[in-house]
């Protein structure tokens, strides 16, 4: 078992290093300068972290933070920045146009009789052009690096050995959160940077990349699932704020991620693009509305948590605070504590069934159960 843990730790970090090296190679190819290979030296930090983790933690992770994922982001972020800031972007459609022009110059490919020699010559030209595909289709390469980055982050967090106090259930919850987060981040980069008005503005591209980099910092953190604490009874006597932070620390961290790291900054960028830069399309409007809706739902969740904490401070269950207005009035939201006790103490056969009103008052049941009782 210990050997499997070490193997998973090494394989995951090797995957991080290989992907960052591919990004560095792509930068040197696009820039046509070998000095950009110096970016590969950033992987030495990940190598050092691997040695320390294997020596002191036996390959297992840390509590609340994943240094391997954080260093992986440090390794690959500069390469993606350089690729996005590169001004000589070309569309892949240009490749097909150039191939068609070259083929038309050498003859009509639609002629019914084509010699075998001429066909081989055309195949050689096509192979030479496809060999330069990586230089022509830069947007596709950059988008592929963005997509594989997010996939490797999720896969790497899954493969990394569990450490600290995180459980498998918490890890599965964290991975599901990462899937939704990664999809939103990929939509943000593709929908904002694909516009020509945005691409031609270097300052605007830099601002979008800053927000994108800031949103990626949530991947190394595990606070959203590890802060679910069981609050002692003594915390209630210390005040509302302490009880609120103790009970709902994980929920507050999730709300904070949405407001300050992901949905909030994304909404600001999209509103600036639409209002100030006049970049308006139906996808940009849709995702702006989506970010607004997510933030509104998180705010609604925050209000609900505050109300639940206030109800807990008063010493009553939350379910009794909404509909129970007096000792003689039945609750609208559910049965009272006395009704629950009587339900457990007395079996259903012991209570006489006289009317529908008495049934619903004494023992709240569903309509199907009521039908079965009245018409056996």
Automatic annotation (TrEMBL):
Record keywords: Membrane, Transmembrane, Transmembrane helix
Pfam families the UniProt entry points to: Tmem26
Transmembrane portions of the chain: 36-52, 64-83, 202-219, 240-261, 267-289
UniProt keyword Membrane present: yes
Composition skew (Polar residues), residue ranges: 319-334
Domain of life: Eukaryota
Keyword Membrane belongs to the record: yes
Disordered: region residues: 318-342
Stored InterPro entries: Transmembrane_26 (IPR019169)
PANTHER family from the UniProt entry: TMEM26 PROTEIN (PTHR22168), TRANSMEMBRANE PROTEIN 26 (PTHR22168:SF3)
Full protein name: Transmembrane protein 26
Species annotation: Peromyscus maniculatus bairdii (Prairie deer mouse)
């Amino acid at each position: 078992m210990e050997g499997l843990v070490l193997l998973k730790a090494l394989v995951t970090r090797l995957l991080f290093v290989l992907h960052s090296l591919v990004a560095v190679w792509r930068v040197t190819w696009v820039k046509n300068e070998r000095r950009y290979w110096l970016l590969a030296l950033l992987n030495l930090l990940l190598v050092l972290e691997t040695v320390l983790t294997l020596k002191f933690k036996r390959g297992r992770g840390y509590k609340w933070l994943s240094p391997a994922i954080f260093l992986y982001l440090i390794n690959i972020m500069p390469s993606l920045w350089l690729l996005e800031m590169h001004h000589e972007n070309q569309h892949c459609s240009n490749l097909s146009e150039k191939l068609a022009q070259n083929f038309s110059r050498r003859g009509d490919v639609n002629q019914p009789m084509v010699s075998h020699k001429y066909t081989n010559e055309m195949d050689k030209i096509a192979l030479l052009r496809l060999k330069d595909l990586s230089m022509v289709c830069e947007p596709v390469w950059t988008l592929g690096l963005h997509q594989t980055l997010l996939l490797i982050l999720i896969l790497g967090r899954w493969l990394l050995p569990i450490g600290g106090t995180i459980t498998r259930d918490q890890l599965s919850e964290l991975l599901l959160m990462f899937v939704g987060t990664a999809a939103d981040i990929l939509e943000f980069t593709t929908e904002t940077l694909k516009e020509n008005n945005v691409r031609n503005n270097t300052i605007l591209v830099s601002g979008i990349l800053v927000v994108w980099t800031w949103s990626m910092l949530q991947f190394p953190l595990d606070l959203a699932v590890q802060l679910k604490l069981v609050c002692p009874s003594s915390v209630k006597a210390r005040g509302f704020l302490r009880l609120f932070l103790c009970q709902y620390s994980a929920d507050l961290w999730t709300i904070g991620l949405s407001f300050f790291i992901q949905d909030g900054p994304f909404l600001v960028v999209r509103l600036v693009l639409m209002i100030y830069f006049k970049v308006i399309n139906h996808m940009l409007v849709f995702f702006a509305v989506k970010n607004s809706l997510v933030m509104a739902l998180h705010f609604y969740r925050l209000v609900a948590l505050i109300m639940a904490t206030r109800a807990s401070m008063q010493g009553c269950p939350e379910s009794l605070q909404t509909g129970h207005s007096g000792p003689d009035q039945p609750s609208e939201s559910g049965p009272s504590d006395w009704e629950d006790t009587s339900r457990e103490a007395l079996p259903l056969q012991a209570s006489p069934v006289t009317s529908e009103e008495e049934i619903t008052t004494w023992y709240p049941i569903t309509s199907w159960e009521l039908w079965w009782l009245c018409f056996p």
